[in-house]
Amino acid sequence: MNTDSSKNIHQGRNVKRFREMLGLKQEALAYALGEDWSQKRVSLLEQKEVIEDDILNQVAAILKVPVDAIKNLDENGAINIIANTYTNNDNSSTLQGHYINYNPNFNPIEKIVSLYDEKVALLERLLESEREKVEMLRKGNG
Question: Could you report the per-residue pLDDT of 97-112, keeping only the tens digit for each?
Answer without folding.
Answer: 555 555 556 677 887 8
